[in-house]
Each structure stands twice: as structure tokens, then as C-alpha cells.
Amino acid sequence: MQYEQNTANYRENALVQSFFMQVYGWMFAGLLATGVMAYYTANSPAMLEFVFGSKYTFYGLLIGELLLVIAINGAIRSLSATMASALFFIYSALNGLTLSAIFLVYTQESITLVFFITAGTFGAMSVYGYMTKSDLSALGNILMMALLGLIIATVVNFFLQSPGLMWALSYLGVLVFVGLTAYDTQNIKKIAQQVNDENTLEKMAVLGALNLYLDFINLFLYLLRFFGKRK
Fold first, then answer.
1. What is the SS3 string spanning the chain?
2. Is the pTM of this model over 0.85?
3. What is the mean pLDDT of residues 159-187?
């Protein structure tokens, strides 16, 4: 009986680890697509003119990114795994277009440094979310409310242009996305343990990658405000 239980646990752990390999694989591919697109755009006068030459184009790209995130999250179960991954890559590429602005503001050395700081922080919190026995659901609810408040306050500060509020929001942003990294990782682990259908798991891997990708990118951008060296 104990042998059968140990075998079942081993199979479950192997399934969870395999699922996470897919999640991190998609996430890495998305980050790579974003990085390549951002770097290419920042070094192409024609692309810079296209993205930043008109505020309508820039804000249109931002709205397109938001709609893609909503579409992937809302329709993930009805999408095929191929379509879900395609939408994820389209989103990653569009995000690269708008994020190319960081190469115009910060030095490449400081961007690289902050990327590795983000990777270390993200990795530590993701490991914590995977390994902890504590249920992070309550923390997740608090973080989601804090994220909503962060978004609203950021929009308000877009008009106020308050440096003090900007720095306060930056500190809050780091805390929110550090916590969300652990929370989302634990949620992804729960999905791997509960879903048995292979096709559904493939789509959930893309969704999980998107959530962790968003955590990583937002954490990176907030840390860049603290450690990025302006040109």
C-alpha cells in the first residue's frame, strides 16, 4: 500500500515538474521575443518613428496588448493550444515594441544589471511559491486589491505628475509583483495537480507563462526606476 502511494506521489511530482518546464519554457520564449523586438526597435529609426511618431499608434499598441491579455485569459479553454501560444507570442512582440523606450532612457549596462536583479528576485519568489506549504490564497486576494489600487493611482498620477507619489507607487509595485510571483507560482502548481487532460494542460502552460511573464516584466520595470542609470 505504501509502495503504491509512493509511486502515485512520484508520478504526480513528475507531472508537476514537467508542466513547470513547459510554463518556464514559454515564459522564457516570450521574454526573448520581447527583448529582441525591443532592442531591434530601439536601434531602427523607422520602427521608432512608427511606434512613437504618433501617440495614437503608441496608445493603440498598449490597448492591443491589453485586449490580447484579456482574450487569452478569458478564452483560454476554448482556444487551441496552438492559437493560445500564437496569441502569447504576438503579445510578447507588441510588448517589445512599446518597451523599446527603455533603451532610449536608460543605459544598456544598467538595463542588463536590472534584468539579472529581477531574474534573481523572481527566481527566489517562484521557488518559494512552489515549495511553501502555506496557502497563499489570502495573500493573493490582498495583492490583487493592491494591484487595482496601484493601477488607479498610476492613472491619477499620470495627470498629477507627482514625483513623491511616483516613488511611493514604485515601492508598492515592487512589493505587489514580488508577492504575485509567489502566489501565481503556487496557483500554477495547483493547476498541474488538478488537471489531467493533456490538451488542457498545454493551454494552461501558456496561461501560466503569461501570468509569470507579466509578473517578471512589471517587476523589472519597477526595479528599473530604482537601479536604472539614465543616459
1. CHHHHHHHHHHHHHHHHHHHHHHHHHHHHHHHHHHHHHHHHHCCHHHHHHHHCCHHHHHHHHHHHHHHHHHHHHHCCCCCHHHHHHHHHHHHHHHHHHHCHHHHHECHHHHHHHHHHHHHHHHHHHHHHHHCCCCCHHHHHHHHHHHHHHHHHHHHHHHHCCHHHHHHHHHHHHHHHHHHHHHHHHHHHHHHHHCCCHHHHHHHHHHHHHHHHHHHHHHHHHHHHHHCCEC
2. yes
3. 95
